[in-house]
Amino acid sequence: MAAALANSRGFFSAMGQVDAEKVEVLQAALDALPDTDSPERARLLATLCTEIIYESSLERRLALADQAKAIARRLGDRATFVDVVYLCATALAAPSTLATELADFAEAFATARDLDGSVSTLWAGNLGFYLAVRAGQFELAKERLAILRATAQKLGQPLHLWSISYTDASLALLHGDTEEAEQLAAAALEMATASGQPDAFALYGVQLMQTRYEQGRMGELVSLIADTAEQNPSMPAFRAALAAAHLDAGDEAAARGLVDEAAADSFSLPEDSAWFEGIFCYARVVIELQLRAHGERLIELLVPFRDQVPHNGLIPQPPVATYLGGLATVAGRYEEAESYFEQAAELNTRGEMRFAEAETNMYWGRMLRARNGPGDTDRARELLEQARESAATRGYAMVERRASAELSKLS
Q1: CA distance 267 to 270
Q2: pTM beyond 0.90
Q3: Which residues are CB-contacts of 2 (< 8 A; sequence separation ≥ 6)?
Q4: Which domain covers residue 348, as residue numbers?
Q5: What is the per-residue pLDDT for 4?
Q6: Which pLDDT band holds residue 12 (cuts at 50, 70, 90)?
Q7: CATH number assigned to the domain comprising residue 261
Q8: What pLDDT is attached to residue 153?
Q9: Is 187 left (phi over 0), alpha (psi -120 to 50) or beta?
Q10: Is residue 131 part of a domain?
Q11: What confidence score (pLDDT) does residue 84 get?
């Protein structure tokens, strides 16, 4: 039992993979325990929850996490509760769980600080950072990141310093600084490789894909993403990324084929931390290729999360409202699109999200050109010029190309 608990780095063993032997050991340890409340049982349940992320439903993971948290609460064991929350965090990082995760985090973080548990404070700070971003609580995210950075430096352990490095890369992506993000992601890869992390390149690859997307260079990664998708069938979001990469590379037929294939299954993706990334990649293709029927379905899927700014701990995304606005434009629902763009613009400003701001303005200007109501042409030109200027300055080639194309249609 002690070995089963000790053999964990605080989250899944490797991205996209399930360690069947470890899962078997955890299950055997649970079976060997008396069916009564104990800190060991709570931690085993939580560790099992995170280890099966790539082979189980969200419902099963929620059930394991709920059991673990309930045991800790019945025992009044605050340290165990903190451990359970951060062990389960990645496994529960789905769009629909944000409110619950925010509440659990607030309790776990306060408890960890009160108990002066440095490792627990570090992981709680990491969780708190990206949850705060998802909720649009950007000042709180800064506070949590400062605590995370200070705690990691105090501990000085390679695993913890790696977590800071890739989190800093994600912050650079959030602010649209792709050059810094690429440098930080490469530094994180070096740290992870040196400390023997089994998924060092996989995590780096995720950050590289987002960097290349913001740079308008995702098409360069078609072969790499195709290989990654084939090697990781448990992570279908990579097939969505492949569709977006084909689009960026100019292969609209390949992009359309993958979207049609996903639409046949109603864009069904596992409810995990990669859900937003997958749906957004499909949305980008649908928006650019003007696939109205597919757009209607994606709107249905995204509307419940319209207030969120997706962040999975590795990479951020523009606000959900940005893509809802783009999809609503394709559907001809212009007033609805305007409302979404206004919401996205407010989040972009508060979060200092420069890439998201440029992309939002590009989509917004496109909508105004299509609507062509009183004053829309002037507003469209203003937004598109802002998008093009920001993109040209910051190296967002895709946004610059599309904004320029839209401006040419206004001439």
Answers
A1: 10
A2: yes
A3: none
A4: 214-410
A5: 44
A6: low
A7: 1.25.40.10
A8: 80
A9: alpha
A10: no
A11: 92
End-to-end CA, the chain:
71
The number of residues in the chain equals: 411
Where residue 3 falls among pLDDT bands split at 50, 70, 90?
A: very low
Our CA dihedral for 290, 320, 162, 118, rounded to 10 degrees, sits at -170
For residue 348, is pLDDT > 60? yes
> Hey, is 209 helix, strand or coil?
helix
- The token pair at 347 is 């989040």
pLDDT tens digit string along 201-215? 888 999 999 999 999
| Domain closes at, from 66, 92, 118 | 92
305 domain-assigned? yes
- Domain boundary among the residues 59, 75, 92 is at 92
Which two structure tokens, joined as six digits, stand for 121? 């404070």
**Contact 273/279 with Cβ under 8 angstroms?**
no
Residue indicated by tokens 């909508």: 367
Quick one: tokens of 245?
């990469």
Beta-carbon contacts of 157 under 8 Å, excluding residues fewer than 6 positions away, are none
Per-residue pLDDT at 256 exceeds 70: yes
In angstroms, rounded to a whole number, what is the distance separating the alpha carbons of residues 227 and 221?
10
3-class SS of residue 179? helix
The whole-angstrom separation of Cα 225 and Cα 156 is: 34
Specify the number of domains making up the chain: 2
Residues 220 and 353 in one domain: yes
Give the 3-state secondary structure of residue 316. strand
